[in-house]
Amino acid sequence: MTTLERWHVGPWTTHGTLPGEPFEPGRKRTPDELNFDVVGLARILGRRLSGREELQVRLWQNELRPTHTRMCGVHTLADPENSEKLRTTALEALEWLAERAPAGYEFVYTDAVYLRPLTDLSAEVVTVDAVIQLAAERGDALPADRLAASQVRRSAAGWFAGDAVCHWSGPYPSAEEAADAVRAARVELANQLVEAGHADLAATASRWPEVHIEGQADQAATK
How many helices (H) and strands (E) does the chain have? Predict the structure, then answer.
């Protein structure tokens, strides 16, 4: 089964208008364009299609895909039945994505495809992102949260701890040293949660997933 080597909380596709909403040309995809983006996202992440399915995707692309001369947010499929077929194909692609969500996360499809942390504190796996989200909903942002939720990635300069956009710590000469920085931040986060009155959130620390290191398989337990 395909494993996602990189992930980030938040949207994984462009945003689109929902069925019945007015179009926003140049800003948001039409419902058909957005459904096509969902199908494309799954293909990018490794979903294989049959020859007939690939041909269908190309036909949809000819009608929908904006180019540098075609503005997004205005294109729809001419045939309503074809539009419905694209919608159901997008839902099938979402099911494929859902099976590959990292432990403790889920893919949700609304005005975009989002990866969101599951916030069930009784679950076998509780992510740091979920704990941070719950603390924020209670009105607390904690100093250690960004680094504690980081993943480890390699660049030409060395190993960094960060998210999909920013490096919060590094470079380090090895992946393990970068991961140790994230683990230390997680200890700090747990202490800060207790001090802020969120002992229930801190108590999940033993079920936080191991720090994700790009190129290595996920592990279920924290060191």
Answer: 7, 6
Q: Which of 93, 113, 107, 116 is nearest to 39 (CA)?
A: 93
164: which residues sit within 8 A by CB, 6+ positions away? 6, 7, 8
Alpha-carbon torsion (22, 82, 79, 68), positive or negative: positive
Secondary structure in 3-state letters for 171-187: EECCHHHHHHHHHHHHH
Residue 198 phi/psi, 5° resolution?
A: -115, 55
Question: 192 near 181, Cβ under 8 Å?
Answer: no
Query: In degrees, to the nearest 5, what angle opens at C-alpha 8 toward C-alphas 28 and 210?
Result: 165
Sequence-ordered list of residues with C-beta below 8 angstroms from that of 171, at least 6 positions apart, any chain:
155, 157, 158, 159, 160, 178
Which portions of the chain are predicted below pLDDT 50? 1, 218-223
pLDDT in tens, 56-115: 999 999 999 766 677 889 999 999 999 999 999 999 999 999 999 999 999 999 999 999
pTM, full prediction: 0.86
Q: 217 is written with which tokens? A: 């398989």
The Cβ of residue 184 has, within 10 Å, a number of other Cβ atoms equal to 14
CA of residue 72 relative to chain centroid, distance:
23
